[in-house]
Design a protein that fits this description.
Mean pLDDT: 94
Number of strands: 28
Distance between the termini: 38 Å
Structural class: alpha+beta
Low-confidence stretches: 1-7
Strand order of the largest sheet: 3-5-1-12-9-10-11
Radius of gyration: 28 Å
Helix content: 25-40%
Largest sheet: 7 strands, mixed
Number of helices: 20
Shape: globular
Oligomer: single chain
Length: 804
Amino acid sequence: MNDETAPQRPYRFIGKPLPRKEDERLVTGKGRFTDDFNLDGQGYAAMVRSPHPHARIVAVDAAAAKSMPGVLGVFTGADCAADGLTPIPHDPVPKTKYDMKLAGPSGGAVFAGPHALLPADRVRHVGEALAMVVAATKAQAMDAAEAVVVRYAELPFVLHSEDATAAGAPALWDEAHNNICVDTSFGDAAATEQAFARAAHVVSRKFHIGRVTGVPLEPRAALGAYDAATGRYTLHAGSGGAVRQKRELATVLGIAPENLRVLSYDVGGNFGTRNRVFVEFGLVLWAAKKLGRPVKFTATRAEAFLSDYQGRDLVTEVELALDQDGRMLAMRATNISNVGAHCVSLSPLSKGAGLIPGSYAIPAAHLRAVAVFTNTMPTQAYRSSGRPEVTYAIERLVDIAADELGDILGLDRIALRRKNLIRPNAMPYRNAVGMVYDSGRYQENMAWAMDVADWKGFPARRRAARLRGKLLGLGLANYVESSIGAPREQARIKVQPEGRVDVIIGTQPSGQGHETSFAQVVSDLLFVPSDAVRIILGDTDIVQVGGGSHSGRSMRHAATVFSKAAVALIGRGKELAALVMGTAPENVSFNDGRFAARDTNRTFDFFELAQALVTSPAQRALPENLKDDLAVVIDNEMHEPVFPNGTAICEVEIDPDTGEMNIIRYASVDDVGRCINPLIVHGQTHGAIAQGVGQAVSEQIYLDPDSGQPLTGSLMDYAMPRADTLPAFAVEIAEVLSPTNPLGIKAGGEGGTTAAPAAVVSGILDALRPLGVREIAMPATPYAIWSAIQKARKSPPPPQAGEE
């Protein structure tokens, strides 16, 4: 499908900014979040967590804790092992057909580092749970957890990924030599070397895109129950996908999957943090059976900072080769991902590996992708998994090339980008490491974003700022990102005679508005009112197949399987209408939402047909293949990635005396393919920009290098962006359809994050450029900016290339 050539039907609801139908329920306290659920007689769990980054567990003395009021049980890693609980089967290597194929050193299998619910031998990061206390009240459980005495033998630790691979570094796992679990190369090394050999210019840098965490509004929680009469477990736990959680937890417990029900209804924020199983999920289920009563765990915010899966933490060393005219010839990169103490997900390393050339037509590239263990919390996919990191690297390199070579090349940073951006007529475009971009108009995005940001008016605004004693800077970043995700999805759709369409789907919203946007798609495909469509999700006794929500997959996979289901349902409707009307199915048509036949004057919409089937004599004589009335079950498997893309522009103002920085303007153009609901997509874009800005200027998981202790362990010291620190965003949606799925959908929830760190830092450095500041590390806090200014004032500024 191509937006320029394919005729487009006039949709009634697709593309309309319908208000979210779920919002009234959520904002009036009627949400169904995990902590909202309670069961009679439930106990409360509290975790005993390691204060050390690395230590051997010598002994756990729980005698005092067990004697305290209300305590129901204290459980350790030895107890888990005695009951045969197995490690969480995270399976971190992405499995879709077109993912970048990561492997262990020498091409072997990836060793992930067994993730036991409670370790019995060693703790490998601060905050790792090593014992669980269950008591009649939460306060009693927390008091008793403090009474558990653990004797440790402290071990040497390592926190930084590059340090972990050094000779003599402390080893986390005997099976991982030099702490390396992945070492894979991509691209054409020989062609890349040849291109660098003939290059007129080479620019290079090393960047560390630091560690952050998701800080979802709803802290992690789980409620486990066991029914001895049926032998079934039930878990309430918000996640990125209940089906996967069910499968993995059944493996941990050693039970058949049908003996576990997972309920994941409303989820108060995810951003990738909740996509994988947490140890507490398995522990409350196990303890519920052992104690004969439900067990509930709710993390404190401080615990979440210590034990939520975290994000980013990539060291990337990149080089860009250019010819004498500024044409990009090749790039080289080494990406080192810090996976923490256990390898939970390699999605960030894999996704980033496929996109190192960004939006640019770079003929040759070579990448070494490495993942290493450290004594830190495991990292996981975090919003736009892996793409902001590599976008930051390539966009900073382009700015650096323009800064260092602009006078020689006669190109400013915009002209250099224009010269090298991939052209629309090159689509689909295979980049130098093998990823095939589906569609896009990258130059148009950049030009449109510059118009939205009033790029031409910036020099006047900069002069006015100087008169106020301020420094004004303008940053720009282009991006392309990929959305793949678990390939399989299923939809079960049934038209009910009372005037409702029930849609069961295996994705899992965490604020994306699925109940509204999914209904828009179904309503247009079936010609039924949007309000009549009920989206059912989150209960594995009902939702039996589905890939959950990650990698921007939800709308694309759901709309594709809905499209197939609609065809099947209309076909089934024709057969049923023929029976009711007493004619042959081939005589029945479906136009504008009505079934009709040329040899009868009767017509039905879907609901009228469902009602007719209830009262018609034909119902009693239905053939076996039509016994389920107006209902279909459709599976679909889709491996092809899509590539959302766009441009972000950030204008910042800096006080040179204090380093205070304010974002004055922020504009973006994001190509999401077909946009189902622009109101929701704009909201997703706003949130995504805020998360990217946070990474750029304030958010950081900082570990003290001498002790390994987290120093940013609460909202008192982990600085998230707030409404009063951000401007009103000027965002536009481009709709260049993808040829990979029926509606041409790409994705709209992650692009804002992908470009923001590069755009913001670009703006900061543009403001500081007259002072001679050429580099600043993220997060670019006021102190970091002030320090860079002071350092630059002590040394003469480097020569400047001309400004655009």
